[in-house]
């Protein structure tokens, strides 16, 4: 009798687990690979995490910084591939390229990549059919240069600094040249190969340009304070395309919030981890909403005055 009762109770308990027992949500492991550390890319990752948190997806993150070295980015990609993490979030072009080259079966979501097709990360901005999807941060460079030219019409020679070894930066500079030429402006270019060269590069522009425009270059962004220092000391107006750089010293930026770039990428990760969709069935996306940030305080330090019409147009004014 006792034996039969024990069997019955065991059967009931098993059935309860199968039918009505509480399901234990899986905790996913996401590998995060970033080329360098700076505010825009940090905001990107925060946005990514917020999207998964809002969707109720439990996650542990393994954060890896390549310190600006492609060899490190490749090693990080190999690490995530061998550990078989559930998903990889690759932030910026070099790390996304390294991850796409090594990781072939694990879902890969990239973000902060200007031209993912040209960089070889995806074949198309539509569904790629493989294990990759993500969000481009292609800047509206023509619109930016048009606006900054309106704000500083007397500036005919514009300086810029970028890493010639970064496909993302090279593409952006190409668009910048076109936008400048279209308006009869001259672009003076200085290339770097490491963040430590940014200050010297900025110094080399003193006396040669009327204003400086910093495009989407991660090395320059990681040493942005050096550019600000040179511009403040030499009264050179500094314009950027990343709105986060206005609070760091730029006069103005027409761009998008990198938190939103990461948030959009995070929503794609939710589709994969929570809804079971294949990365290859999810099209890549573009950042769309643009904001104008301006700082009269920074302008004053750089010997520049922002016309009142642009203060009225601004979405945010830092005073």
User: Beta-sheet strand percentage?
Assistant: 15-25%
Total separate domains: 2
User: Under the CATH scheme, which class of the largest domain?
Assistant: Alpha Beta
Amino-to-carboxy terminus distance: 83 Å
Instruction: Indicate the CATH topology of the largest domain.
Output: Rossmann fold
Please name the fourth-level CATH homologous superfamily of the largest domain.
Response regulator
The helix tally amounts to 12
Q: What is the number of beta strands?
A: 13
Q: Percentage of helical residues? A: 40-55%
Computed CA radius of gyration, to the nearest angstrom? 24 Å
* Low-pLDDT segments: 12-22
What is the makeup of the main sheet?
A: 7 strands, mixed
Backbone structural class = alpha/beta
- Strand arrangement, major sheet: 7-6-8-9-10-12-13
Mean of all residue-level pLDDT scores: 92
CATH architecture identity of the largest domain: 3-Layer(aba) Sandwich
Order of helices and strands: HEHEHEHEEHEHEHEHHEEHEEHHE
Q: How would you describe the shape? A: elongated
């Amino acid at each position: 009798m006792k034996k039969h009762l024990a069997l019955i109770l065991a059967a009931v308990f098993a059935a309860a687990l199968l039918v009505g027992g509480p399901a234990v949500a899986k905790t996913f492991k996401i590998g995060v690979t970033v080329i360098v550390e700076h505010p825009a890319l940090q905001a990107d990752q925060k946005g990514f995490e917020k999207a998964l948190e809002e969707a109720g997806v439990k996650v542990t993150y393994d954060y890896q910084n390549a310190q600006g070295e492609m060899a490190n980015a490749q090693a990080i990609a190999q690490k995530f591939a061998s550990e078989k993490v559930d998903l990889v979030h690759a932030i910026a072009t070099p790390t996304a390229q390294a991850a796409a080259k090594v990781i072939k079966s694990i879902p890969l979501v990239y973000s902060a990549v200007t031209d993912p097709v040209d960089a070889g990360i995806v074949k198309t901005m539509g569904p790629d059919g493989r294990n990759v999807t993500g969000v481009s941060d292609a800047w509206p460079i023509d619109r930016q240069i048009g606006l900054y030219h309106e704000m500083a019409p007397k500036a005919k020679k514009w300086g810029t600094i970028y890493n010639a070894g970064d496909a993302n930066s090279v593409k952006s500079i190409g668009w910048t040249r076109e936008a400048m030429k279209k308006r009869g402006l001259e672009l003076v270019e200085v290339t770097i190969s490491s963040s430590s060269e940014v200050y010297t590069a900025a110094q080399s522009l003193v006396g040669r340009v009327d204003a400086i425009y910093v495009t989407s270059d991660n090395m320059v962004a990681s040493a942005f304070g050096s550019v600000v220092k040179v511009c403040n000391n030499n009264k050179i107006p500094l314009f950027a395309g990343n709105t986060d750089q206005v609070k760091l010293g730029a006069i103005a930026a027409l761009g998008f919030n990198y938190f939103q770039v990461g948030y959009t990428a995070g929503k794609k990760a939710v589709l994969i981890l929570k809804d079971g969709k294949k990365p290859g069935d999810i099209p890549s996306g573009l950042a769309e909403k643009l904001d104008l940030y301006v700082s009269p305080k920074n302008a004053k330090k750089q010997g520049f005055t922002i016309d009142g019409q642009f203060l009225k147009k601004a979405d945010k004014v830092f005073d």
